[in-house]
Amino acid sequence: MTVTVEPAEPAAPAPAPGEAVLRRQRIRESAARTYARSFPIVPVRANGMTVEGADGRRYLDCLSGAGTLALGHNHPVVLEAIRRTLDSGAPLHLLDLATAEKDDFTEALFAGLPSGFGENSRVHFCGPAGTDAVEAALKLMQTATGRRGALAFTGAYHGMTAGALAVTGNVAVKTPLPGGGEVTRLPYPYDYRCPFGVGGPAGAELAVTFTERLLDDPAGGVVKPAAMILEAVQGEGGVVPAPDGWLRAMRRITAERGIPLIVDEVQTGVGRTGAMWAVEHSGITPDAMVLSKAIGGSLPLAVVVYHEEYDGWRPGAHTGTFRGNTLAMAAGAATMRFVARQGLVERAAVVGDRITARLRALAAELPVIGDVRGRGLMIGVELVDPDAEADACGSRPAAPELAVRVREACLARGLIVELGGRHDAVLRLLPPLTITDEQTEAVLDRLADAVRAAAAAGPGALPGARP
Length: 467
Ligand SMILES: Cc1ncc(COP(=O)(O)O)c(C=O)c1O
What we know:
Blueprint: H1 19-28, H2 35-38, E1 43-47, E2 50-53, E3 58-61, H3 64-67, H4 76-88, H5 100-112, E4 121-125, H6 130-145, E5 150-153, H7 164-167, E6 183-186, H8 200-216, E7 227-230, E8 233-234, E9 240-241, H9 244-256, E10 261-264, H10 279-282, E11 288-291, E12 303-307, H11 326-341, H12 344-365, E13 369-375, E14 378-383, H13 400-412, E15 415-416, E16 418-420, E17 426-429, H14 437-456
Parallel strand pairs: 3-15, 5-6, 5-7, 7-10, 10-11
Antiparallel strand pairs: 1-2, 2-3, 4-12, 8-9, 11-12, 13-14, 14-17, 16-17
This protein binds pyridoxal-5'-phosphate.
The site of pyridoxal-5'-phosphate has 15 residues, from helix 6.
EC number: 2.6.1.76
GO molecular function, one term: diaminobutyrate-2-oxoglutarate transaminase activity
Cofactor: pyridoxal 5'-phosphate
């Protein structure tokens, strides 16, 4: 029998590695996908600050899982803790039962809490996201005070959950009062875009005066709330550090009026700002701290830590299925200890200062950089329209299109930098605390080159807008 061999079809060009994955993601995942739009890469390997895409390209990651990866990707200390836990046969899921891993995590956490806070505190393990811990903290304070409502700030970011408890039927877990009450929005001091059009210490002073007078005004429309919640450095809001004096004033104002103060350290915690916890810069002692991201050593974990006097919950008052994941607790304990032991908090302060100084020098050369600010390794570069008129504070309108071009130019140069802030015009640098001197120089060189190139390209149409 003769077998006819069909001439081979001319081979179709092989899709670029990762292209098919990206295509399927675009088709299957929700329109709300976020980072995936900014960074159309398929990471296949990551180590420290370096991420390698399926196409073989390597990137320096200045996003670090939105500030989660204090030690960068796959740090040996984290991997070892995870492997050790897996090999030990410890149960991976145990609701909120006691385990050796949880005990050890709690030890590591309490050992590193700000002095004056850890001694009389309780911890509640929440669902694993930062937003879960924010919900828990607000509900805790509603229970403790019997009040509703919260004081929150312009530019704040605390998460994305809404409504789950509202649609739950179990009345007991909704007590003391149904619903979260009103949110009173207060001005957060933002030097470059001062809410009072003043800027500097005078702007922060006005923010204090406004808050105090509003709360004391019998016709101010504010019913005494269950809590005030704030970030010591606003991350998603555009990397806006609050002056220490303003934070101390918020502590005084809330204490004098019997309003619990919740500090959201989801992004600032574990050394990010050059202090283990951002509250330590001002020396204030909050009534509750909301923690997530880095405390899980790259795995999902969230807790609220609070003074024991607020522990008015009944058993089961704030329950949940995923609370204190075993691997995340092991990875988180290892991370917190390593950060403290290796002096990474101090290093974050030093390297952060160096980066900020270099970026300020760049701002003097490139008028598209309106402001450089931050604390430790939480740094923001606000991009503006240099041709627009400056306002009374010397600030110019945000340049969101330029910011997108800079982000793309960074990616083309092997640098992952995300945007945030008002109008998404702030480049946010969140490198791991383990960033080396060499990596620091490479980040700065690539960033400077990207800003120069994007600024030189002018305000024309965006290249290759992605679906
Ligand atoms: C300060 C702050 N709080 C809360 C959250 C919400 O955390 P998650 O995204 O894990 O829900 C974030 C997330 O970026 C945050 O930066």
